Amino acid sequence: MTSKNTPLLEIRGLCVSADDLEILKGVDFTVNTGEVHAIMGPNGSGKSTLVSVLAGKPEYTVTAGTVRYQGQNLLSLEPEMRARMGVFLAFQYPLELPGVRAWQFLKAAVDALRQHRGEEDMSARDFDRMLREKVKLVDIDPDLVKRAVNEGFSGGEKKRNEILQMAIMEPKLALLDETDSGLDIDALRIVSEGVNRLKNPANATVLVTHYQRILDYIAPDHVHVLLDGRIVQSGGPSLAMELEAKGYEWIREAVEASG
Amino acid sequence: MASSVTPPKSKAEPKVISRTSSDLDADYKWGFTIDIESEVIPKGLNEDVVRLISQKKGEPDWMLEWRLKAYRHWVKQDYREPTWANIQHPPIDYQDIIYYAAPGSKDDAPKSLDEVDPEILEAFDKLGIPLAERERLAGVAVDAVLDSVSVATTYQDMLEKAGIIFCPISEAIKNHPDLVKKYLGSVVPFADNFYAGLNSAVFSDGSFAYIPPGVRCPIELMTYFRINQADSGQFERTLIIADKGSYVSYLEGCTAPARKTNQLHAAVVELVALEDAEIKYSTLQNWFPGDKDGNGGVYNFVTKRGICKERNSKISWTQVETGSAITWKYPSVILKGDNSVGEFYSVALVNNFQQADTGTKMIHQGKNTKSTIVAKGISAGKGNATYRGLVKINSGAQGAKNFTQCDSLLIGDQCGAHTVPYIEVKNSSAQVEHEASTSKVSDDQLFYCQQRGISVEDAHYMIINGFCRDIFQELPFEFAMEAGQLLKVSLEGAVG
Amino acid sequence: MTQTATKISNYEADYQAIREQRAASNPAWLTQLGDQAWTRFTELGFPTARRGNERWKYTNVAPIANASFGLSSDLVAGSDHESELRRAAPWDDEWINLVFLDGRFSKVLSNLNASDSGNGRILVNNLAEAINSGAANLEQLLAKHVKFQEDGFAALNTAFLGDGAFVQVPDGSVLQSPVNLIYLTSTSNQPTVCYPRTLVAVGKGAQATVIESYVGIKSGALNPEYFTNAVTEISLAEGAILDHYRVVSEAKQAFHVGTSRISQGHDSVFSSASFAIGATLARNDFEVLLDGPGASCNLNGLYLTADAQHMDNLISIDHAQPHTSSQLNYKGILDGKSRAVFGGQVLVRKDAQKVSAHQSDKNLLLSSQAEVDSKPSLLIYADDVQCGHGATAGHVDKDSLFYLRSRGLDADTASRMLVHAFAREVIETVKVEPLKQFLDELFLEAIPETGLKLGGAA
Questions:
Q1: Which domain holds residue C157?
Q2: Which residues make beta-bridge pairs with C271?
Q3: Residue A128, in any domain of the structure
């Protein structure tokens, strides 16, 4: 059971490999409810791997370490079980599901969540109503939910659709994998506002990004720098500014000098 | 203008055809047998059997003559079945089949529903096709065919008011000989192919529909075929004529008991669309597919063809093929009238040891004729699905257009998916396009669904349904619901 | 079977004569092979488009079967044909050029550029000489990939096997100059047949370019029919790379049946472009077996037919191993009352996972009496594959035509430009510059001048 002091997410010494290549080399990381964390790092540092492993993507192998979510061993759970327990991953590259209508997809997701919680399925009418509200909340084109999931969506539409799904599933732990990449400034603002609106003291957000830009809109409590599979530095919002100004090479040199 | 007839009030809940369960075969829930007395003629085929069938039906001489001509032609082929299809089966012993089986022991079919054996009514109830007046399906007139005879046709009174003829073909032969003489065999002549020849000689029953000029048929017409008798073949014959400016939507469903031996189903369907007329023909084919080890199941060797005989006519075939041990079937359209339109939408699913070689032929003869083919094949288990389709543009078909799309989805590594299109173009102004793809459900797609809390099994069904969506959209609502269900049942054990 | 008997008798005397010569001067295995092939031919006869024979569904070879073709008995006076040859076939003095006149190697016309072939490593030779000199591995290589047991034409060629080209590239060698093989048929007094045979073996990690050309003398008063029945066998060992070109530019009264079988080992790369023009009836039966993981092939083709010509391409790709890939891209231009047949067959065998296969057949019809029959089939028995195919048939795009005309081009010029552009896409795949130029001119010249009214009036 979760006590008040149990962190929402607690990662200890996490090592992960894929295709015999070690990607994460011992990550320690703790997230409490009500917090927003930003994980920054250059391409290939392992950011996406970290959040994908938390969501249970099959092609990764955890070679060492533990991940506890609400005090429970997260790594032993199937991906759908993690999702039902409130772990949400906004994909860097959302998949297209040809022919699968977004409406049907979202309803199935909500039904699965509710069944897990022992609640009855939502009626189509109630679901429609809820969907309309959420569509407004994240400011997306209502017609998108009538189309097949992500099929023929623009990059921006796909990213917004991820935020819509997040709004509907109301996760406790939202993992946003480079949700900002490829967005123009207007789309970035809309997506960020959506994320901010969904924030509350009972949930937490982990934001993976390459750029400081999105942090102008979503204020992080903690900023971590991931480099070559390790978190090499943690700090407050000012760390992001410093990174933006000095670049990742600066931190690499600093780490090497100290290390 | 189409005359209007008020359709019956709709009931709150749409009925689906497959809501019953059976203890005979856990996977094929339509596999029960109906316990009724049947009149059955001895196994085997010769001229006397053809005469006997004709006599049982009380047919006029011209009909018998036609059957005999067909039989004599068929005999000449010396049991040489077509061999070009991508299917395998042991030789069929045509002398080991019962060619006529009728429920009830009397020669005469029941005159009204009250006379139908309650056992039969109950069986159709169980299949989701209630025939009794107060329970019958809303908005659908049903001709229920059990083995060799039609047992009941609903809504006939209402259809009569609109001038629509919808009756068993055996009745049409007696009551509307001019129409039958004019059109029977006009689209599929008895010399067309081996199975069509056999059917022409021994066909027992089937449906006949005639929509008079300018009438838009107010309800769906449906024929439900049920094989019950063991060792019997089913050879139904359907003829639909849409006269000038008329419209009809016709549905066809079929099931059979789960039996260890294979049963032959060799039907012929002919459609005729005159000027400005439209026929929409939908099939849910759910004959017994055989068990998990490939024992039993129906050999579904069917010839379906329509002719857009006059200008601006349209024929549209939609089929969802989930049943049968072997399917050999190419619903086709001859586009004779200028500006006529042919469509073919198909989902063919094979699982376990099922084989399907199915597709269409679009024969463009008239000017500015258009055809669209969308075929989706799903292969699972050890099944093999082949799309085989011909697009033929004759030299006179100025401005003809065809678009073909064939997609295959593979589930598991023991199955096969094949695409064999034939494109024959004799007119330089034609535009013919063919596209095909073969893929499997990707791990990334599954993970995406899982990340939204959806189980792997549900994710599979969702993606497979999405794959078929273009086809299901073409089906009437109830049939579309049913089709989704059928896919799910048919794929049990293959996904997740 | 009586029908085949009479047709076969035409060849009987010639075969017995060949056999006698062979028994006297060639190794025994060759006589044996010939006998097997001849016997098989007498059983198979010529194929018919009978019910269920999908390989010959759209092509009727009765004109070949009914004619009486004999072996050319004329003495080869090669030098007479030199100027004709330069016009009719691709040529470059830098290449290794082997010329066969009426089925026989012509030393006079050939140019075996000693620099490349004479270094003792790469063997480019004519088959007759290789047979006579007792080339050790010939017995193992010949008729290994062509299944003459299943095909009447291949059986007939094997029975009459006498001369042709033998190209061997040893492991690790890189053959700098293209090997140019020209099979030239001269004019004769009566209908003649020849049986070119090409054998190419590319060793491990070796690399080569081979051009096969089949050409006929197009000028002269005498124009009897002739028949070229060619068989080509190509093997690529592990990691081998071969660029292969096949040019069929026979005379108008010619019949051409070419059977090519390519077998590819592990990680080998085979690129081919096939060009066909001319001939009354031409058949290109081309089959690639991807027999090692990582093997890939890229097959391009372009055919142009006019008058009453009949062109049949049957291209098969057999993905027998996982991680193999194929690209098939054929294009046809049809004029007059001609007919083109395209049969594409991609087979992905069970357990051949991670296969990628794409095929496309595009046809441009320039005349209202031309006909195209296309059958691009996919047969797939593995589940983790990326396969697709496309086929189109139609006339010159009206909008493009209008666009060009609105810029002042007349309809004929505009049409020719668009047809040429359509053809260019395939010609551009040719990596050997002089060959590319030769083909570009060949096709440009063949694009009909007139009769392109399609879409122009709209």
A1: 2-292
A2: C243, C298
A3: no
